């Protein structure tokens, strides 16, 4: 369930996932627009050379998927004018800090949510905004980086796999949402493996770095929860089928996406509980280690107390001390201190203090 690097000795090297905030993607100079048009009998895929190439597909009776990779304000505005999208929706698409939500405008539905990617190069999970608009004849999607989450969806459409070629735009919207939620499982699997590796290292050799990793993972889970939790309400509203754009046959599939979203949220909560327990274990382990150190130092100090007493007695500067004139006084005092020290060690061992 996480990114894992192994060093030359084969020991897991835990790399923290930094998900406290979304990655800020640079605004592209030009968006890449792909047009996928299909019905049960035909399939067409082409890259638009200009935004005006999308205009003929607005009223076509076929299903048209306009896939926009890279957010450019000018591109979004032109598409908004062609497909009569409200200016506030255009602003929401351009802004990358939107909370997951759904808005029904009657002749089209607007959905915005978060997409997550696992960056193997930097060993971290990043988030970006995904916006979707679907109407009776078209679906428009906006991705900030143009990831490959929908590769299998495009293959299903192209190869006529499943029922997607026989269904409408509402089913295509469901398939896209389902692909995003399924990708959440991959992210959680990576994070889960990270937690398992961290837990094993915490038991075998706890360190201060483990504490930093735990806190960063907890921050990651909070970020995930904030991003996924509102999606539950979005899917629930779609499932209720209050819009005429959503057919009853599609609502059944949306119920499955809703169940998957609940499972994702449950897994996030489980991981949060596990991290809280790991934090308690780490603090207890650190406290026990400190107690062991204090125990050893206390025993050493206790042993040297009577030895210090004996040496202080023989170091007093009284004039009349019989031992001062004794030839074996020095050796006798050393032997006495040795006997006392050994006797105390034996006593501590019998008491199981050592």
**Can you tell me the CATH superfamily of the largest domain?**
CorA soluble domain-like
Shape: rod-shaped
Give the class-level CATH name of the largest domain: Alpha Beta
Uncertain residue segments: 1-26
**Mean pLDDT, nearest integer?**
82
Strand order of the largest sheet: 4-3-5-9-8-7-6
CATH architecture field of the largest domain: 2-Layer Sandwich
> How many domains make up the coordinates?
2
Q: Using DSSP, what is the number of strands?
A: 9
Separation of the first and last Cα atoms: 41 Å
Main beta sheet strand tally, sense and closure? 7 strands, mixed
From the 3D structure, determine the CATH topology of the largest domain: Beta Polymerase, domain 2
Element-level helix/strand string: EEEEEHHEEEEHHHHH
**Class by helix and strand content?**
alpha+beta
Kindly estimate the percentage of residues that lie in beta strands according to DSSP.
15-25%
Radius of gyration: 34 Å
Description:
This protein is α+β, with helices and mostly antiparallel strands and 354 residues long. The protein has two domains: 280 residues, Beta Polymerase, domain 2; 55 residues, Methane Monooxygenase Hydroxylase, Chain G, domain 1 (Up-down Bundle). 52% of the residues lie in helices and 16% in strands. It contains seven helices and nine strands. It has a seven-stranded mixed β-sheet, covered by helices on one side. A two-stranded antiparallel sheet has the order 1-2. The longest helix has 67 residues. The protein is rod-shaped, with a radius of gyration of 34 Å. 28% of the residues are buried.
